[in-house]
UniProtKB/TrEMBL annotation:
<dbReference type="Pfam" id="PF07478">
    <property type="entry name" value="Dala_Dala_lig_C"/>
</dbReference>
<dbReference type="InterPro" id="IPR011095">
    <property type="entry name" value="Dala_Dala_lig_C"/>
</dbReference>
<keyword id="KW-0067">ATP-binding</keyword>
<feature type="domain" description="ATP-grasp">
    <location>
        <begin position="64"/>
        <end position="323"/>
    </location>
</feature>
<dbReference type="InterPro" id="IPR013815">
    <property type="entry name" value="ATP_grasp_subdomain_1"/>
</dbReference>
<dbReference type="Pfam" id="PF08443">
    <property type="entry name" value="RimK"/>
</dbReference>
<dbReference type="InterPro" id="IPR013651">
    <property type="entry name" value="ATP-grasp_RimK-type"/>
</dbReference>
<dbReference type="GO" id="GO:0005737">
    <property type="term" value="C:cytoplasm"/>
</dbReference>
<keyword id="KW-0547">Nucleotide-binding</keyword>
<protein>
    <submittedName>
        <fullName>Cyanophycin synthetase</fullName>
    </submittedName>
</protein>
<keyword id="KW-0436">Ligase</keyword>
<dbReference type="GO" id="GO:0005524">
    <property type="term" value="F:ATP binding"/>
</dbReference>
<dbReference type="GO" id="GO:0018169">
    <property type="term" value="F:ribosomal S6-glutamic acid ligase activity"/>
</dbReference>
<dbReference type="InterPro" id="IPR011761">
    <property type="entry name" value="ATP-grasp"/>
</dbReference>
<dbReference type="GO" id="GO:0046872">
    <property type="term" value="F:metal ion binding"/>
</dbReference>
<dbReference type="GO" id="GO:0009432">
    <property type="term" value="P:SOS response"/>
</dbReference>
<dbReference type="GO" id="GO:0008716">
    <property type="term" value="F:D-alanine-D-alanine ligase activity"/>
</dbReference>
Length: 328
């Protein structure tokens, strides 16, 4: 059974609730509490967040605008649209305008879909050819993309429920470590197989053009054999769903960053959120940061896979969510 469904089924049994899970995909479920109240869930999406706030969080451009207006240090960027939208919208910004804006910001820049999740097609772009390649790939599946300034820093997620930070961890992009005998593709296949044992969908695509480009920039290929202990980074985005790794910092997060995560969640009108920021170190007092985005349906399977302690934290979170939903 999928991770979220299995955890919810376990907790529901403990609190006397009944769970009905759609059997084919095991993503969607219906929960009936002892008091007769009912709720549904869709993988990591619960009725704990308001519909409007959750939708706002999904649109990276709108949430950036509002959070920036409230004084948070958001990424600098603009939205650009495909030809179909440009023909309908007054004063449209098209794919070519996006390239001009990228040059104005200064290369490299980040190009990403407006409202997709899981790090899909998030790409660090260094030149014109790369820009148009990724822009066209994004426009093949949705109508808008964001071009934003590239920021240097470590990637962290702060997981918040109401006034409590449930977990905090650093996210490290997909990489492999050389053993002196295996090729990069062999190491990557082994890593993908290990990650799939978690029971959630891992989006490590061996045909991902971003991996090829990162290898090329390092004068490597899938057939290269890397020396023992040498780490090769394959993606620029640090999403755990694309094979990234997590370092748990829950017990060491500084109070400044706890407060930041809680305030951002509240100001988005959310109760549950994964707040993603770039900074040097969340265990030290806050001096500078860049808010990447706010996720209203954070996935936790990869964090829980770090160990029993982390799994217990996830169970604690889901137990609290169900208790709040039962109260209504």
């Amino acid at each position: 059974m999928r991770f979220t469904a299995s955890i919810l089924q376990k907790i529901a049994t403990e609190i006397g609730a009944k769970v009905l899970i759609e059997p084919e995909y095991e993503l969607i479920g219906h929960i009936t509490f002892r008091n007769g109240k009912r709720t549904v869930f869709d993988n990591t999406r619960f009725n704990i967040n308001g519909f409007g706030s959750a939708n706002l969080a999904q649109d990276k451009a709108f949430s950036n605008y509002f959070l920036g207006s409230l004084g948070y240090r958001v990424t600098e960027g603009k939205t650009f649209f495909n030809d179909k939208i440009c023909r309908k919208v007054a004063n449209p910004r098209n794919i070519d305008d996006g390239w001009q804006y990228a040059k104005k910001l200064g290369l490299p820049v980040i190009v990403k879909p407006l409202n997709l999740s899981l790090g899909v097609l998030v790409t660090k772009v260094h030149n014109k050819n790369e820009y148009y390649e990724v822009a066209k790939k994004i426009f093949n599946i949705q109508s808008a993309l964001i071009v934003e300034r590239f920021y240097i820093g470590n990637d962290f997620r702060i997981l918040v429920l109401d006034n409590e930070v449930i977990a905090a961890y650093q996210r490290i992009p997909l990489s492999v470590m050389g053993d002196g005998k295996s090729t990069i593709v062999e190491l990557l296949k082994t890593k993908r197989e290990d990650l799939l044992k978690i029971g959630e969908k891992i989006l490590i695509d061996l045909a991902d053009f971003r991996i090829f480009k990162n290898l090329e920039k390092q004068n490597l290929s899938f057939q290269s054999v890397v020396s023992q202990g040498i780490v090769v980074y394959l993606l620029d985005n640090a999403n755990l769903s694309t094979g990234g790794q997590a370092i748990d910092l829950t017990e060491n997060i500084h109070a400044d960053f706890e407060k930041l995560g809680i305030n951002i969640t509240k100001d988005m009108g959310l109760r549950l959120a994964g707040v993603d920021i770039l900074t040097q170190d969340i265990t030290q007092p806050l001096t500078d940061y860049t808010l990447l985005e706010v996720n209203s349906a954070p996935g936790l399977a990869h964090y829980a896979s770090l160990g029993e302690k982390q799994r217990q934290q996830v169970e604690y979170l889901y137990r609290k969510i169900l208790q709040e939903l039962e109260k209504g």
